[in-house]
């Protein structure tokens, strides 16, 4: 590590390699990763252990880890600049998670809205992992003395819990953990479902028409946009309560073109109806995704290279993680192994 790198503040984030990576996940998280990688020491993780809280097809899960890694890179994350790794390759995550479990309270985990939502969604499999999910997230973040965690709005509550846990631990044992802050985009923190714009766009949605994936074909995107829910009016203007569907499309349009919502509203002020607007949003998304998709196809072919990146990433991550875990083991009173 150069002198300059050691002075940089730390960024940590991750995505569960389940379902398909959506444009919501891109806008809420990865878009910021791409910008922040130049100024911070960044670790970007495949949260493969977290996916096990829902039953996974083993072969599919393994394949998706490579798919997601190739997508991170195709979106512009430089593997030479950042530490890219799989959670399961760094055992310190589960080790610290156990310790933190002993400091997390049932009541605070019970309040997590994601746990409540997922318990409804997977009523036949409300497992202990699902309940303790945010504690493993806390271990992810706290192992690396993280300053900022770039995520979408839905992870804010988890981040608050992580901060509480870190403060509780520090209060008892001294300054062990850096207290992390969420880094949430001002616009696009919560991309909504296309057919039900009152719900978050989610990669685990059973209705494929609700989300756009980063690998959707142009015709699929056109089709999904055509069917997107709007309203009975005809004006293209941002108003979350009166026009949630159009507002969501404006946010998408703005994110993929880097034009402001105001500029987009102005250019459609004489529009009479939504047909042309929806078509333009589709074409802008297609144009934005096209180079990402070409890079992805090339990267995904070379699994040996992807394995090499994960191997290097795990070595670098372990070096950092083990230093924090060692401190924690000593502080809580565990013996040194001889
Ligand atoms: P996950 O895999 O559900 O989502 C990955 C990231 O994408 C963001 N996101 C969205 N942002 C805006 N609009 C949407 N519709 C949308 N859908 C998803 C999420 O906020 C997230 O930033 N628990 C995490 C993974 C994780 C993690 C971590 C994140 C594990 N350990 C440590 C940060 C730090 C998750 O399930 O994200």
How would you summarize the topology of this molecule?
Layout: H1 3-7, E1 10-15, H2 23-36, E2 41-46, H3 48-51, H4 58-74, E3 83-86, H5 92-101, H6 106-110, H7 113-121, H8 128-142, E4 148-150, H9 156-173, E5 181-183, H10 218-226, H11 244-257, H12 261-267, H13 275-301, H14 303-332
Parallel strand pairs: 1-2, 2-3, 4-5
Tryptophanyl-5'AMP binds at residues 12-16, 24-25, 27-29, 47, 50, 137, 140-141, 149, 151-152, 154-155, 189-191, 200-201.
What would you say this structure looks like, in words?
The structure is a single chain. The protein is mainly alpha-helical. It has two domains: about 5-190 and about 305-330, 3-Layer(aba) Sandwich (Rossmann fold); about 215-295, Tyrosyl-Transfer RNA Synthetase, CATH 1.10.240. The chain is built from 14 helices and five strands. The strands form two sheets. A three-stranded parallel beta sheet has the order 1-2-3. A two-stranded parallel ribbon has the order 4-5. The protein binds tryptophanyl-5'AMP (TYM).
